[in-house]
Amino acid sequence: MLVTIKEMAEKLRTYDEFAIIYHIRPDGDCIGSSFALALGLQSIGKKCSVIGKDPVPQIHRHMTNAVPQDELTEPVYFSVDAVSPQRTGNYSDKHFTFCIDHHRNSSIGADYKYVEEDCGACSEIIFKLLNEMNITITKQIADLLYTALVTDTRCFQTSDTSVQSFETAAALLKLGVDAYEISRRNIFVKSKGRRMIEEFLKNSLHFSCDDRLITGIITLDNLKSANIADSELEGINSYVEQYEEMMIGVTVRELPDGRSRCSTRTSGNISANDICAEHGGGGHFHAAVCELDEPPEVARVIMEETCRKYLTESSDRA
Question: Per the CB 3.0–4.6 Å rule, which of 71, 78, 144, 252 could disulfide with 98?
Fold first, then answer.
């Protein structure tokens, strides 16, 4: 059931234990939002444990390791930043009492669900929720929320960045977050392995439709050669957006089971959400994802075929 932020705040006070679930292949937004929510609820006497199928990325553990994990006996499940049950991994069969999300086509069923489509980051919603509950936002919570905001907006560069995004950032800065260090750590600094992956991706790029369609591939062998974990590639899907001619860009990442994750970026009036929805995925208007059962090279061909149709339709509307 969809509820208001006020109604969710009221319902949260009636429960004592929460298992907060972040999505598979976690990014800075789901991690920062989930752990900030846990700290906020713990501050008013609730017990919380933040869990997910995949481990917290190394880059965020300096923050998350400092968040207590309570032992739970009869928790309710709370999904944060996951667009579908499949994105919750091995928790997809759980009954979710609460759900907060900011994606289009959010399909998780929950007793109490708040969705704010296309807001810059899920952390913007968590910030509003904590304030609605009159929970004191400490610097520790603020650091988590700002990390989430910076990573999901790519340092306020995405089309979903809004007035609310900047207002949230300003409020968090007043609470003492180190904007420079958080942005530097999460956006600007790149490890040797990350730089190698970008080179692999660059060399794999295929340009078509007068360079308006760009697709690239990252394989498991690439990750092995660069000695880097998939969880260290946050933001890599935006690499294709640096090309001026790009209207649709797809980054195909090989999954351990041989399937492919296709992250799509668009510009102008082309909906990445609609493109990925044709293959069972979704997300935001200019950034969305889907997963195909085929290996990367085959998945690339399938996605290029779909994308060409949208480029044609876009040209016809122009």
Answer: 78
